[in-house]
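Job type: complex structure
Entries:
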Amino acid sequence: MSVFKDAGHLFRFAGLFVLAFLVFLVVRHYVVPKSFGEYGHYRGAAIGEIAAHPIRFAGHDTCETCHADVAEIKNSGKHAHVNCEACHGAQAKHAGADDPSTVKPVLPETTVLCARCHTASAAKPKGFPQVVPADHSTGLPCDTCHKPHNPAMDAGGAK
Amino acid sequence: MNISRRQIMILLPAAAVAWKYVLAGTPEESPNYKMSDHWWSMLIDIPKCIGCGNCVRACQAENDVPEMSFRTWVERYHISDWQMANPLGVMSNPMTDPQVISPDGGKEGFPVTTDESGKYFFVPKLCNHCADSPCTQVCPVGATFISPDGVVLVDQTYCLGCAYCVQACPYGCRYIHPVKKVADKCTLCYHRITKGLTTACCEACPTGARQLADLKNPKDPIHEFLKTHSVQVLKPQMATGAKVFYNDLDGSVR
Amino acid sequence: MYPNEVGLQWSVLIVLYPFITGLVAGAFILASLERVFRVEAVKPTYRLALLTALAFLLVAPLPLQLHLGHPERSPEMYFTPHSTSAMAMFGYVYLWYLMAVLVLEIWLDYRREIVLLSQSSKGLLRIVYRLMTLGSNNISERSLAIDERAGWIVTLVGIPSAFLLHGYVGFIFGSVKANPWWSSPMMPVVFIFSAMVSGIAGVMLLYMAITKLRKLKIDIRCVDTIAMYLFYIFIIDFSLEMLDLVHRIYEADESFRSLNFMVHTQLYIPHIVIQICLGTLTPIILLGITQVVRLPQIARLRIYSVAGCLTLIGIFAMRWNVVIGGQLFSKSFLGYTTYKMGLVTREGLLVAIALTLLPLLFLWALVKLLPPWPDESAPAAVAPN
């Protein structure tokens, strides 16, 4: 047909498109990750990869497996709900080590540590125990009078 | 330390086995964890927050958060007392003009103040893991998504780093990782909660102001809490389906 | 400011991208004036407008690639585009516009010259032209008539495609509910009209400059017509922007105080002075004068040049104010930050300048390869075999 003869170039152009599209489909088949679309429009395997991130904080349950005696002291005092690592820092290395005593947690300096929560400020909730450190302890470390695990004055007194 | 040698002999192997399992970190989820059993959220109790910044530090330690980027942070609000604003007798509403500070995200706590005027409170913020999140909506390739158990995550091997999600988040909880050049944000410590642990920020909070909650678990204390307390979410007008609930959130919080 | 908001995410390159695609869309609309709406007067700029659009379109993905944290992953937008994301459209809309509209139309319009040049030129150019013929040397009356008809259809389809190419960028901003400076149903419309303004002004300036360089006489009827269209479209664009402004001021929602302060302080020079006064009001007034008062030709040409340049500056400022302005204020409406544009960094000023000049380089190459005015050009005339 004459229209095809004179429109041949248009068909060639369209042909390029079709070819490119087919190449695209083939490449796509190999490039898109296999788990894509498993749960939604994302790579399903990503969930597992994110869940495999290393753990740095052991969690108080793990601490209490070995240190049940400390937990007992703590649970009878005001610091019952303060988790171990809130003061002692991340201890997964210690808990997970073959011999935990080789990875000894560093005991935090009480003047700095306790002040973080207990320094008085008009911004803190009124019922929260807070002091002006300079007036209260005149520079002495807090654990001179307070045992951190159970900080009440009558729960054991000075070290 | 008062652990006897006997105790160590018994406890150590048990703890080691339990702990090795937790640390296993294999790409498959823990065999006992089924995503469809959980719908994660968080409860933040404003009156309990003392602005100590433990959560911000713990999150940074647990998740290798770069400096000057924050997966969680704490803001301190000061609402002044009502007072005359101008001679015409018009009063300016202090609720629309809160003074808010967040020095380094509250990482090292807040400066002491002796100003007893007005009221102060602390607001910890993090990703709200929105059920209708605008950030997952705008991702051009599907690199950020909400998992079947309700945690909004970023697939960092797929993300292009276009930052559209950072623009779309109404809460400012996302950032582009300066080294990896991909989007990053709070993952609700997904690697911990799928193994029965709580998030690093909740673990480190000394007052229990932050609590992880599983809305699909009928025994979770959040259900009782929601029934007996007045809770809000941030920017409810955005209809994001935010799942971080705040107890006693003041109306001035932005 | 929320702690993560202090540094800006989208830099001057993201300002440049809508500016460039705006020029593409606008240039194409000018070309369609002749092709579809049969405005004979602007015929001298028809081919130039198409080549300009192509030159800028080729550069358009570059600012985006330079901005991405992982540009090597950008093919993911083709393989797994997220259907709820306006940005995911980019790959396909761009490809469609490039191949199925612009390249096709240019090819159809130039096909006769391409075939002739493939026979008359030598060396590497000969191979290039032969490739461009796609192997077909048919330039009979009938085939050229088919080309004419096909080209008309392509242009017709190209108009909404051009709107899509630039409108989707407006939607990218307009659909972000988190950002009140951006979130607006007007955003795609304002973008499209300001794109038309910039494209028309750009082609007008290029036509005047190239004609002067070729030492030929500017077709004053052509330029008068272009300026007239520019004037009227500018009025529409300005009205839309003012509507947005007035609406914002009147409703004064929670974001208003913060945005108002920003516009009066940080954005005062870019927004009030450059975009509104210099870049919109001045060109409108200048062009309005030429529409109302009968001025001598030389005065009109001078005014058109000035108005054209100011227009381009104004539209660039508009993109700047939208993109950068939208990131200068906190989503808490309680704070502001600043934009520190680097100089030699990957997204810095030098790169931005280079990317603005690169399309002109491409245009120069395209004009050499596919001369827009073969009948007028003396030396490189086509010699039939």
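Summary: The two ends of chain A are 107 Å apart (CA to CA). The first helix of chain A runs from residue 2 to 6.
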